[in-house]
Amino acid sequence: MIVAIAAHLAVAALLPILARRLGARVYLVAALVPAAAFCWLLVARVDAVTSGARPEAVVRWAAGLRLEAAFRLGPLALLMALLVTGVGALVLVYARWYHAHDAGGFGRSASALLAFAGAMLGLVLADDLLTLYVFWELTTVFSFVLIGGAGLATAARRSAVQALLVTTVGGLAMLFGFVLLGEAAGTYRISGIVAHPPPAGGIVAVALPLVLLGAATKSAQAPFHSWLPAAMVAPTPVSAYLHAAAMVKAGVFLVATLAPASVAAGWSDVWNTPAAVLGAVTMLVGGLRALVATDLKLLLAFGTVSQLGMLVALVGLGGRTLALAGATLILAHALFKAALFMVVGVLDHRAGGRDLRALSGVGRRAPWLAATALLAGASMAGLPPTIGFLGKETALDGLLRAGGAGHTALLVALLAGASLTAAYTLRFWWGAFATKPGLAPSGWRPASPAFTGPAAVLAAAGLGLGLAAPAVDGLVAGYADAFPPGVAGAYHLALWHGPGAAPLLTAVAFAAGLVIFAAVGALERSRGRPAFPAPPGAAASTARKGSAARKDSAGAGRGGDTGPARRAAPAWARLADVFDAQRGYERVVTGVGRFALAVTARTQVGSLPVYLSTILVVAVVVPGATLASGIRWPTRIPVFDYAIQLPLAVVVLASAVAVIRARTRLSAALLLGAVGYGCGALFVVEGAPDLALAQFLVETLSLIAFVFVLRRLPKRFATLERTAVLRWPRVLVAVAVGLLVGAFAIATSAAHRGPGVASYEYLARSPAQTGAANVVNGIIVDFRALDTLGEITVLAVASLGVASLLLLTGPAGGARPGDGPAAAHRPWPGAAPTRSVLVEVTARAVFPVLLVFSIYLLFAGHGRTGGGFSGGLVAGLAFVLRYVAGGQDRVGPAVPTHPPRAIGAGLTVAALTALAPVPFGGPVLGSYVLATDVPVLGHVELVTSLFFDTGVYLVVVGVVLELLRTLGVGVDKESGTAVAPGWGDGTPAFGPDVAARTQPGGEAAGDTAGADGGNADGDGGGGVGVGGAP
Question: How large is the average pLDDT for residues 529-557?
């Protein structure tokens, strides 16, 4: 199981590289992974699980804290895993032809889809609440990427953010509920909670509604369902997978997983009843909204909302027969809804649109596609002999057998929902394929069998599984058997149970659907026009790229038609507006924004001195109270330990005072650097060479950053009248902080005069457990490696965030020269008259030496002074020296990649090193010593934490290069050197192609059109030149 999940994520990381050579065929490579996982499950696991086996895999992280990644393959997990892998493979095959004519972006899209499949597989296999939450949030992140696409379309970005906000808020509530539930149960293992659920009441009564809230937001339950229709701006493969078979089923899966525990522990008041009510309302709201939709994709989206509500109600209410019906309908819904979404994608590409008011006669031109939609639609409407009929018949039988007021109410709601489902199913097929009077036949370009094949396979599977009812019963009965059988005995799936109320109710529901469909058509004809008049050019292809397609998708995402057309609609159609959750979402977001602005206006005055003073005053008052409460002071206060400390302390103090008195910014920066260098010298005296080296390097880099920034600021500090007025309060705060810090230093010096317990522990364990003679490096990359991983992640995010802000808001000083007559003279790179030959020659000589020295520090850090952080800083300073001496055209060819890629590579190496021991039974972040004899070199030992340190090294180098790319913009001009294309204008400033771009007469990368195009659903139009004007 772990290998299957890891394979999805690992191959997903490689797909962007493969896409450069394979193009759209990379989707076929991606499809191999879920296809292999599907075959493995089908061949090696189905028989075992249906026979009662429950395979498990556990990776223990911190046993004392009960942190572990536990996976378990039960009947429900097996069903969901088959859907995730099987439908996922077909969707990726479909995507190959759907995106065949796109301009690019294949690697990004395929990688995100496959990574999502891996995250979803981890979610359904998880047997630990916290593990489930991790994969839950991973699916949210990947869905954000997939919905937003390349980020070029405003509607796509807005819809992606909406999905992220809604599902993340629910996820955080669910996490809180998981913690409460795990503590109440005494275990975070889901199988343990289901087997021995904690009784209702107490914190369980708080935990369960929070968990249900998370499930409701993920599975688009009312009133949180607005994100799902809005997400229809995503490409059709994304909708067919995430919004039919996978992501939206996560909430249903969670409710179904905990349903047996709810029945056993009596959680009905806080779990079963709320789930049933929530699901029933969602089923009716979604059905009504689907009935008035005119965009075929939007119709299916609201239909998905309705059917998700039905699933939540059935599995949430509990009972063996309803559980059997729910599991069967989970399978049925994934098959028919993914197939219908694929059909809409084919129509969008080949018929020129998906507006049911503009399509006509497509069924005659594409009979096989119409037959596929008819077969899938029959399953959606619950007609025999499809699997949809099996599930719906079982649900009706279960509700009829259970009796009781609650079950009767749900039965009535289910009949109403089934009637609406039949009505909008007929509306879908009629709108997509029927020949409409007075409407010219739609154009049709023949579709490849490979393009329509995946939808046909899914539709045929719905029919085949309906005919193979005993096989389906064997697959899902294991989950249903977790519930008591009921007074009538165990129920089994079958196409025909004999005459009874259930078949009669099925016929009544379909007949009611026919009547509703006919009534809607009659109302439209009586008005002489559709309820919502078709907009001009509705028949235009939504498959085209550009702004028109984005506008089509934007309308779909926001819920369809708006404005005068909707106001002119009949009352039955306007009734749907009452349940328009999109407007509710927008009101909530607007209200929260206004509240945040009001609070910010009253608490954030925009003054840095005020903020710092507030922080420092709190820092004085709170610790000061501790000092005043009584602390044992030392009887003797040593002034210094070594004589050399005294002059160094004088230098530090004198520099600090001089900083206060400095009148120019550059002087203050230099004096502040002197303070840092003085502290580094004190570290040397105390025998801490690692700390001293890091201090010296950081201070040097900080001074360079100061110089880069100070070029944009006035030379002298501003002198204002109010500055003098506020001087004494600032002096008082500063003096108080100084006295407090000094007092604490003196007080703590009385605690101990030697190494503490932790220090002795590190000194004793480091050589044996980490192989490190340098205990400081052993702490950084082994004992406290998790802290280091978090720190480099924060460093990476901060650097990229600062770079984004500066590149977006900074001056255009780095813009590349134009191509007009005024730019006829382009200076040869590095041929400026103000360059210093001595500096450049020295930089060329020192540059490789510094790089070699940085590598030495990286390798030597485990046994001597050094490490990845120090080595990265030295390498970064080497690039700074080369940049200052020769400009960017000297740095670019020396850097084989772009700074963000170096940062990402470093984080990836560090994370993979942390996880590498897990498949071999080791702990996360485990470190091992590998020893071997090498010819010539002799006995060689390699500590695996070196790879982690290499990740730190790459992150630090990438951050320094990002510093040059942002803060250093314009230094080339000021020093007279040439400005390479892309320096500060958003195009890559580093990489192997920079030298070619900077040659005389060479073309800049920004001259070409963007490589990433949109797709048929309007998730981004044609490419945009990255080097042009914004």
Answer: 39
Contact predicate 35/84, CB 8 Å: no
Concatenate the DSSP letters of all residues of 346-363 into one string. Answer: HHHHHTS--BTTT--SHH
Contact 417, 310 (CB under 8 A): yes
CA atoms within 13 A on the CB side of 740: 19
Structure tokens at 789: 């991983």
- Between CA 142 and CA 153 the distance in angstroms is 18
Reduced DSSP (H G I as helix, E B as strand, rest coil) percent helix, strand, coil of the chain, to 5? 70, 5, 30
State the Cα–Cα distance between residues 181 and 183, nearest whole angstrom. Answer: 5
Strand, coil or helix: 69? strand
Nearest to 211 by CA among 245, 184, 240: 184
> What residue spans of 894-944 are helical by DSSP H?
899-915
How confident is the model over 177-208, as pLDDT tens digits? 999 999 999 999 999 999 999 998 889 999 99
| Total residues found in the chain within this entry | 1030
CB atoms within 10 A of CB 516: 19
pLDDT in tens, 232-249: 999 999 999 988 888 899
**Separation CA 503–CA 494 (nearest Å):** 12
Nearest to 117, CA basis, from 43, 252, 7: 7
Q: How far apart are CA 463 and CA 472, in angstroms?
A: 12
Distance, in Å, from the CA atom of 828 to the CA atom of 825, rounded to the nearest integer, reads: 9
SS3 call for 128: strand
Per DSSP, helices labelled H in 604-720 are 608-628, 645-661, 665-685, 689-710
d(CA 212, CA 303): 22
User: 928-933 contacts: CB < 8 A, separation 24 or more?
Assistant: 929/771
Closest CA to 557 of 199, 308, 233: 233
Alpha-helical runs (H) found in 382-448 = 387-402, 404-433
Lowest average pLDDT, out of 628-632, 722-726, 796-800, 858-862, goes to: 722-726
Paired with 872 in beta bridges are: none
E strand or H helix that includes residue 324: helix 320-350
Instruction: Please name which of 446, 333, 360, 334 lies closest in space to residue 97, comparing C-alpha atoms.
Output: 446
pLDDT at 623: 79
Please state, in angstroms and rounded to a whole number, the distance separating the CA atoms of residues 1027 and 8.
35
- Position 85, amino acid: T
Largest CA distance in the chain: 103
What number of H helices and E strands is found in the chain? 42, 4
Q: Which residue has the tokens 């409701």?
A: 216
- Quick one: average pLDDT of 106-130? 95
Neighbours of 869 (CB within 10 A): 28
Q: How is residue 282 written in tokens?
A: 């969602």
% of the chain residues with pLDDT over 70: 81
Model confidence pLDDT, tens digit, residues 80-92? 999 999 999 999 9
Query: How far is residue 522's CA from residue 276's CA, in Å, rounded to a whole number?
Result: 34
Q: If you average pLDDT over every residue of the chain, what do you get? A: 82
Q: Kindly report the CA angle at 367 between 361 and 373, in degrees rounded to 5?
A: 95
Closest CA to 952 of 846, 778, 801, 796: 796
Cα dist from 176 to 69, 169, 210, 776, whole Å: 18, 11, 7, 37
Q: Running DSSP on this structure, what letter comes out for residue 533?
A: P
* Distance of alpha carbon 230 from alpha carbon 56, whole angstroms: 38
Whether the predicted pLDDT of 976 surpasses 50: no
Rg value, the chain, Cα: 33
How far apart, in whole angstroms, are the C-alpha atoms of residue 1016 and residue 1020?
9
Q: How far is CA 629 from CA 23, 291, 407, 623, 682, in A?
A: 70, 71, 65, 10, 32
Higher per-residue pLDDT: 880 or 335: 335
Three-state DSSP class for residue 53? coil
Three-class DSSP category at 102: coil
Q: Please give the average per-residue pLDDT across 811-824, as a whole number.
A: 43
Helix (H) or strand (E) holding 930: strand 929-934
